[in-house]
Amino acid sequence: MAKAKVCSEHNHFEAIGLTLHKEVTMGCSTNEEYGLKYKDVVYVMKYKDKYPKRGADLPLDFVKFFIPYSTWFEKKKKSRKDDWLSKNKEPSQSFIQWLQCGIAMPFGRFTTIYIFPISFAEEYVPKEILGPLKTFAEIFFQLPVKTMKRKNLSAEVTNRIDEVYQADAHSIVDIMNPLVPSDAFCAIGFTMCDLYHETSSNLFGHAILSGKCGVCSIARYLGNFGKNETSVYEKESEEDGKSMIIKRICKTMCHEIGHMFGLRHCVFYECLMNGSNSLEEADRHPLFLCPVCLRKLQFACKFNIEERYRQMVPFCLSHDMTSEVHWLQTRLKIWEKE
Question: Among 35, 52, 232, 263, which residue carries the largest CB count within 10 Å?
Fold first, then answer.
């Protein structure tokens, strides 16, 4: 295997909160910086004092998870004509900018992510899809995930017929807010109804930045989308494509919940938090977070990154996510050899 290289051309160390440092006392902590040596290179992990116990409880090799090796993290590619960044001007958001926003984080009893099955004129998302989503959310965020009682919102949410039945995503989020249990950090709705918003004719998902609620639709991931006014999950015909449906909705779910953690669209690397204008563009984005976004989420959830990756492997294996399994196993093997 070729030796992993740091993305020198576009590494965004400042955004990650890292600095290459040739002369620093190892383990010498200041208010903002901490020297750590990894693979014969000394890095300064900035803002380490922002962690609980001022970062003293973090492992000495903690920095390794955020080094932008090109083997695993690809700089953001030039946008194609109709891609998200070609149509939308996105401000960048570094780790420290995210911290300075004063976003809410899971704490005390407010640590649960709730899954909320909702319907309109169509059936509810089947359990064989919701089950894996709950499992992956638990792994991805390393937080407890519970399922709310399902509810039909057709009488409460603005809707329309635009070839297919659609519900207004913003209206759904507004309706969800008072329904969320008191111990929730956030809630994510799942529906087979197609979504729209006043600024977009169709959406895969929607969430308010640093808000408490979001919603995802699996409608456009179904093989029979558009054949009927309302979406129908046909188990037999979808069997061959079930793993792809689960992969796509897992990405949408984690992307939208990421927004509720205050993460803006990523403009630094190819990343789960990249914006998408189409299914084709969304499929190009990885299932994983880049070093900038990973550092934000890890700070918020305080999870063990290596253990989290290990838990992802059997999930991805069970849903035929071959390239994701390779990415995870390659990354884990490198750490095992150290």
Answer: 263
